[in-house]
Structures are given as C-alpha cells and as structure tokens.
Amino acid sequence: MGTRITFKRPDGKDAQGYLAKPAQPNAPGIVVIQEWWGLQDQIRGICDRYAAAGFEALAPDLYAGTVVPYHDAAAAGKEMGSLNFIDATEQTVRGAVLYLRKTGVKVGLTGFCMGGAVTIIGACRIPEIAAAVCFYGIPPEAVAKPSDVQVPLQGHFSNNDGWCTPQVVDAFQAGLKAANKTHEFFRYDADHGFVNEQRPEAHNRICAEQAWERSLDFWKRHL
Q: Are 36 and 202 in contact (CB under 8 A)?
C-alpha cells in the first residue's frame, strides 16, 4: 500500500499524489496518470502493482482531491473539460517526474483515457522522461503532434472505442512512422477502459493482462 504525498511543481506550487514504493531502493520510477474520473482506487491499485513489480510509482492528483463516481460521466466530462492540460502536464506531471528522478533513476510516464492523452503530451513536452506507455487516449494534434514525440512510446488501444477511435489511432501512428519515431502500438478487441477492473461493463481481463505484461516488458527495456 502506498501513501498520499505532497511534492513541488517546477513553478514552486504544491501538488499531491499517491506514491507506492517497492521493496528495493533506487528503483526506476513510473508516473501514472488518472482517467477522467480522478484519482480513483483503481489508479492507486495500478501504482501498487507497479511497486510490487519493482518500480516506484507516483500518481499525481490532477483534480486536487475531486473524485467522480463511475456512473456520473457528465461530472467527469466537466472536470476534464476544466483541466488545463498543458499546465497539468508541464507543471504537475513534470513535478511528479522530477520527484521520482531525485535519486538519478530513469522515469517513465503512463496514463489511461484522459491520462493517455496527457501521457502523449508529456512524451512531447517533458524532457526528463525516458519512455511512455499510453492507454486509449490521444490528444488533438494542435497540442501534441506525432513528430514532437521525444521518447520511445508504447500504445494500447481498443477496436471498439468511440472516443479514441481506431481512425484517430491509425492517423497518429502514421505520423509516428513518417517521423521515424520509436513506437509500438497494440490493438484489442475490447471496449474503451478495458483495463479498469472496477468498471465491469468495460473491463476485459484477458486484454488487460496482456497489455500489462507488454507494458512491463517495455519498461524493463527502457527503464
């Protein structure tokens, strides 16, 4: 089990998040970005799983304490719509990365849904990360172009996704290929949010475990 911590953003402001530490010291770090529901128990559980796998994991709280119930998509959309994605990425998320890097270890960035989009923005705008893993979220090209990605990128996407559609994924991957960016994308016959075991209407255990193993392999190669 992890703990809630306070850390500094680059601008000096305080931010909070959930930190899970592995047994061994000086482990590589992974910053985990929430879905549009906020810093739910499920995201904290992802941090705990990473800690058990030998990584120090920190999930910054982008909603500053607000957590939206899974049934209230309207409230989740309102929270996401009010989030300044660039400030959240360049300040709160980067602050989390710098916190994990204080011992000189490599740090990766991952996120789900809204957090997947933040992950790609971070892959373009946070120079201190070593690699990134995105789950079913891609930001508008005006915010993050494929050619701006600066680190190896792994992506996990749903074939049945009305938000991060297969067409959007195909276009982004085509841009990565054209820019000769190091990446690997995987597609799953599942619904959006298939990793989240707390949402039975979306969760697909087989696909989730396959994506988890692929992400661990990727981290071991790049961190």
A: no
- Would you write out the chain's pLDDT as a tens digit for each of its 223 residues? 799 999 999 999 999 999 999 999 999 999 999 999 999 999 999 999 999 999 999 999 999 999 999 999 999 999 999 999 999 999 999 999 999 999 899 999 999 999 999 999 999 999 999 999 999 999 999 999 999 999 999 999 999 999 999 999 999 999 999 999 999 999 999 999 999 999 999 999 999 999 999 999 999 999 9
Q: Which domain holds residue 29?
A: 3-222
End-to-end Cα, the chain, rounded Å: 23
Close Cβ partners of 19 (under 8 Å, ≥ 6 residues apart): 2, 3, 4, 5, 47, 56, 57, 58
Tokens of 71: 């049934």
Number of domains in the chain: 1
Tokens matching residue 210: 């396959």
Q: What predicted TM-score, i.e. pTM, was given to this entire model?
A: 0.97
Identify the H or E element spanning 122. helix 114-125
Q: Check which CATH number belongs to the domain holding 207 and give it.
A: 3.40.50.1820
Q: How far is CA 39 from CA 111, 153, 162, in A?
A: 11, 23, 23
